[in-house]
Amino acid sequence: MQRFAIGIEFCGTRYRGWQTQQAGVRSIQQTIETVLSKIADEPISLHGAGRTDAGVHATNMVAHFDTQAIRPERGWIMGANSQLPKDIAIQWIQAMDQDFHARFKAQARRYRYVVYHSPRRPALLYKQVTHAYYPLNVEKMIAAAKKFEGTHNFESFRAAACQSNQPVRHVKHCRLIQHGPFLILDIQADGFLHHMVRNIMGCLLEIGQECYDIAHIDEIFAAQDRKAAGITAPPDGLYFIHADYPAQFNLPHIPLGPQWLNMPD
């Protein structure tokens, strides 16, 4: 039995998220499993580094699977990409030891949320970014993003349907970058709650609209109540971009997608 790690890029617009769901509901995981099972001529179970919501995208979702099938690595990639829908692609594959696990060995996960700030809506970026047509105090948003760094109870920033048994997370960095009309929220943490990034972005957008001051974030944390945190930003602008693993696994690092998303660290 051989274990393989793969890196997946996908546009999540047509899917109900990463995780396999009930019959008739399209998911990223099930779509890839179906194709890999055909190539392997045996059932394949795929394990991802994290879960994404309906409509959320990824530039490098790491996953793994086990198989008895013997195929060259190029055969796995070319075979899968020739059969996968055009909005899902495997970017790399690597043979791994059995102690690798895409989810449980991940030490951190990283997302970027992209806002297109312009009075006019973009046509070519439809469903790839969130459009903010209203005035925003960007400097205030940049300062506010830093408030989410460190260890916090994110109860106010998770969805009511979140299944995590505890809401405390450590955020290594949370920064807002301005690049022309694009505002990119870059956030890395040891783990994320359901809708956590989208709720943080919603909070920053409200601060940018001068709905309240930066100090109000402390009150939202203290409330430990989802109703205190305001809007949930749309899924369109959210991208899973990276998962950190111990150096011993030596996984590939690939570019982070299109130029407007591929910002420097």
UniProtKB/TrEMBL annotation:
Active-site residues, as the UniProt record annotates them: 53
GO biological process: tRNA pseudouridine synthesis
Enzyme class label: isomerase
GO molecular function (one): RNA binding
InterPro entries the UniProt entry points to: PsdUridine_synth_cat_dom_sf, PsdUridine_synth_TruA, PsdUridine_synth_TruA_a/b_dom, PsdUridine_synth_TruA_C, TruA/RsuA/RluB/E/F_N
Catalysis performed (reactions): uridine(38/39/40) in tRNA = pseudouridine(38/39/40) in tRNA
Domain of life: Bacteria
Domain spans labelled Pseudouridine synthase I TruA alpha/beta: 9-104, 144-246
Keywords: Isomerase, tRNA processing
Binding residue positions for substrate: 111
E.C. numbers: 5.4.99.12
Keyword presence, Isomerase: yes
General function of this protein: Formation of pseudouridine at positions 38, 39 and 40 in the anticodon stem and loop of transfer RNAs.
NCBIfam families: hisT_truA (TIGR00071)
Subunit structure of this chain's protein: Homodimer.
Family under the similarity heading: Belongs to the tRNA pseudouridine synthase TruA family.
Protein name (database record): tRNA pseudouridine synthase A
Organism: Acinetobacter larvae
